[in-house]
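seq as requested:
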Amino acid sequence: FVNEVDNNLANVAVEVALNYVKKNPQLGLSVDMMYVEGNRTDSKDLLQALCSKYGQSLSENRPPHLLLDTTLTGVSSETVKSFSLALGIPTVSASFGQEGDLRQWRDLTPTKRGYLLQVMPPADMIPQVIRSIIIYMNITNAAILYDNTFVMDHKYKALLQNIPTRHVITTIADDRDRASQIEKLRNLDINNFFILGSLASIKQVLESAKNEYFERNFAWHVITQEQKDLMCNVENATIMFLRPMSDSSSKDRLGSIRTTYNLKQEPQITGFFYFDLTLRALIAIKNILQSGSWPSNMKYITCEDYDGTNTPNHTIDLKTAFIEVTEPTTFGPFEIPKGGKMQFNGNTYMKFDMDINAVSIRSGASVNTRSLGTWEASLNAPINVANEAEIKNLTADVVYRVYTVVQAPFIMRDPTAPKGFKGYCIDLLNKIAEIVEFDYEIREVEDGKFGNMNENGEWNGIVRKLIDKQADIGLGSMSVMAERETVIDFTVPYYDLVGISIMMQLPSTPSSLFKFLTVLETNVWLCILAAYFFTSFLMWIFDRYSPYSYQNNREKYKNDDEKREFNIKECLWFCMTSLTPQGGGEAPKNLSGRLVAATWWLFGFIIIASYTANLAAFLTVSRLDTPVESLDDLSKQYKILYAPLNGSSAMTYFQRMADIEAKFYEIWKEMSLNDSLTAVERSKLAVWDYPVSDKYTKMWQAMLEAGLPNSLEEAVQRIRNSTSASGFAFLGDATDIRYQVLTNCDLQMVGEEFSRKPYAIAVQQGSPLKDQFNNAILMLLNRRELEKLKEQWWKNDDVQNKCEKPDDQSDGISIQNIGGVFIVIFVGIGMACITLLFEFWYYKYRNNSKVIDVAESTDQQHGGTIVKNVRPAGKLMKQDSLKDSTKGHNYQNLRTRTLMPNLSKFQPRF
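struct tokens:
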């Protein structure tokens, strides 16, 4: 009996099996056991012990019929197999390994396959349930942690072979490193955890995990060989718990062995496996001996006699005898391939069922256990699900960690949105999530950078998060760059060929209601006004003193229809109306006056034509005042400062272009000063000027002096704070600038795009998300969904300002610049109203006509007419008295300007 250190359960089980044989004489067995124990890592001492015991048995003339091997794995197991193979000793092994894993027994002859047997222990079969769970639940990532009760060395490649699941298989760390181990696994984008071990190990692992790792986007599956209940101090968790169940038909035998022979060690399944295996192997040897099939001339050689080629040839059919044993098993029957091409070794095991339960733990106590189904131990058996809905609830939701940089309209904060963000990229990710079927949690990267590499090759921003496995997806207006593709992966572009453009403040044309007056300078307006008054005065003088004027020849022009006397008022009116399309009206009659009028007309024509032309040019030039129209214009001037965002792809572009120019200069200088060149070759390089432009070198230096803004908001603020004396231009991605122009009426996009590059979604290097997202993006492109998103966020955006477009201004002069004309009209109307009131007042109270009421009567006595009640019209006066005398008529206080018609023949004498 060969066992390894620390496998005490095998020792106990074998002792119980020997005790069982002794107490059951009907079995017809008498066993003489020789014990050898070795270290899993020390093959030399184990081999010496084996050879020593074997040599002792041969010297005592009692060679072994059977080598019972319960070593698990490692060099101890390999040493035992090499020993039995070389010396031809019939062996029944309980070591770990499937077909092809037993390297020493890999290429056995048919004869040797008959007596070199291996039966896989339960701990070698139980991990296969992980494969069945992953296939059923379609799990894409897994971390498999195990303790020393399981051996997974040979499972690293075989367990999840041909299954597209990213997985890590590792031993459970010690107390000090266990929490950090789980944290590192989480950073590897793993949210499905499988724990293989004792209940004590499982408890330690669960209690080392953070509370947040038991949320809906995580799934925990604990698998043990023990049959006790799960207990752990976890605040709130629902865990899938798997443990073995014994065969119902063997429960009575199991109870009897436990109580009668005291086989109560845990895990029971392993103890009873060793018990059944030992008993079955011993009975098989007994049956061979009783049947006479054991060779009578059995040849044995010692370790010293073995030379590598003299292995004894035996015809012992231990495999058939092992299969034909009818002794009932204690925990579960043995599954043995009985024919076909399937070999015995690596395909033989003890059959048992695993009970699958969902255990809910609240505040450290198990509050509920629900049965989900069973799994029958096998190499490829599926799980038998009893509660499909419940088991799906235990699946970890596919929740990816998304890191982003806020930049409108791709990503914008919105507290009312489901994820706290909105924008073009959020809509895009939601559409991809509908196709790929996942959920996500989104965070803003701390430094606000997409990712740049420093001189030491270290990255920051989203790229750093992806490299450190802290993020699954990098989302935003992230440019595809060659150096980024060396450390992360990009999907197919979702936004093609976005270039760098220039954003500046929109030139504001100063508007004034009286802008039409600013066309001519103030001294010109004063001169025109002086000319107006002087010409009017001169025309009045000429008309007054010319003998041919109307006022001096009234009789001559008495038959003319138009009789205009050019007094000072008429002269002012004539000169004013002559400047309008209405015209001045009737011209003076005298030739000298007409010459003055013609001269004024010519002067007015020139002034009006000059004013009209200058007004049109003045308004046009004010609208076309754009200082910069391209990148070349920007690089050739020093008045306007300019810079890209710090850490942006635009900054990287200008920095690299400057570096390239510097390298070109060094190459040119080295070529020009190369003494190894011949005179003819040097003459071909002889130029006075440096042949390569240093535009970007100067621009990069100007950018550093201007200072690079750290955010788009800061850049916009610098543009708005700039003046005509010291402007500022921002260089950035055209999509960002286009959106800023749409939502801000005081900004404009200048020049054509350059250095065009695509935008794509970033994922971890080697991530399966790349292919999944590629297919989804291509589907969206075919359905024109991305075009609709562009239309929504760059044309139909709710926050877009309705700005006055430059094209609208070209249709005519705005009211802001010509509105003063309407004010002139209102002022003129107001002055006319005031003048009307003045005229009415002057007429009524200062220059009214006096009307006299006269009554006519005949005085018979005096033979004349008496006039009485004479008074001015409209004014009540004291009655005047008319005195009558024999000498005639006397009138007092007779004041009148107009006499009535019936007094026109009255000739008074005073």
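The CA atoms of residues 143 and 168 lie 5 Å apart.
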